[in-house]
Design goal:
Helix content: 25-40%
Number of strands: 12
CATH architecture: 3-Layer(bba) Sandwich
Strand content: 15-25%
Structural class: alpha/beta
Distance between the termini: 35 Å
Number of domains: 1
CATH topology: Glucose Oxidase, domain 1
Number of helices: 7
């Protein structure tokens, strides 16, 4: 399977259906869509952010390629917001398809107006500072909301949550997940028609 085919399949599948076939890679449910009604398929550009350093965020933004998702490990800092209106705009203009922050974001109304999907634990008025510390890491393995994420991993995210997958895992389950999606409308139809649950669902 080539990458373009896998991308199309990932865009087509219902992400919660993947939860029937996988147990690993799912971010903590506290990570939520700040911009609603979105569905994201992209590749992780990772940032291990240390010391609430806004300069490090800018350096990661400068490396974004079209189709990337900026994934920020805040090193346990859930108080300082590294993403706001300008950060989101810069990412979007560089071709990013989303931003995922294991922590807080700010400028919520502006984020929603801008439309770039942003996922975070919540919002904050306290923001990062232009420290220029130099000890943050870009495109190294990080931990985001309980999941180890490597640069280039698939990021699948919608209003239900965030899932990180490597290509081999994605390719292994996608056909079964799509088949399950295709079967679901008929199951719903039978239930709504009054067919006994024991005949429709596995009991």
């Amino acid at each position: 399977m080539d990458e373009s085919q896998l991308i199309e399949q990932l865009k087509a599948v219902s992400f919660p259906t993947l939860g029937h076939f996988l147990e690993e890679g799912f971010a903590d449910p506290q990570l939520r869509a700040m911009v609603p009604n979105v569905k994201v398929v992209g590749r992780a550009l990772t940032l291990k952010l240390r010391g609430a350093d806004a300069i490090a965020v800018n350096q990661a933004l400068a490396q974004i390629r079209p189709g990337d998702v900026l994934v920020i490990d805040t090193d346990g800092d859930h108080r300082h917001a590294p993403v706001g209106a300008v950060t989101s705009c810069a990412a979007q203009c560089a071709g990013a398809v989303a931003i995922v922050v294991d922590g807080a974001v700010t400028d919520l109304l502006e984020l929603r107006e801008g439309g770039l999907p942003v996922f975070a634990r919540g919002t904050s008025l306290l923001t990062t500072k232009q420290h220029g510390r130099g000890d943050s890491l870009i495109n190294q393995p990080i931990h985001c909301a309980g999941v180890m994420v490597k640069a280039g991993d698939w990021v699948l995210a919608d209003d239900n949550g965030v899932l990180f997958l490597d290509t081999a895992t994605a390719a292994e389950v996608i056909e079964r997940a799509l088949a399950s999606d295709r079967a679901e409308p008929r199951l719903l139809e039978r239930l709504r028609a009054g067919e006994p649950i024991g005949q429709v669902l596995r009991v």
